[in-house]
Description:
Layout: H1 2-7, E1 18-19, H2 28-34, E2 38-39
Antiparallel strand pairs: 1-2
Amino acid sequence: MTDDAEALGIDHRQTKHTVLAELPTATEKARRDAATIAVCEV
């Protein structure tokens, strides 16, 4: 993951991650099936 972020010019130490279940736009299916996946707006 770090290599991928560096290749894209993203400093992973400066990103803020949110679990999918906390996104207001997440569907009930997403919350049920993948609630703990970390996501980050790019």
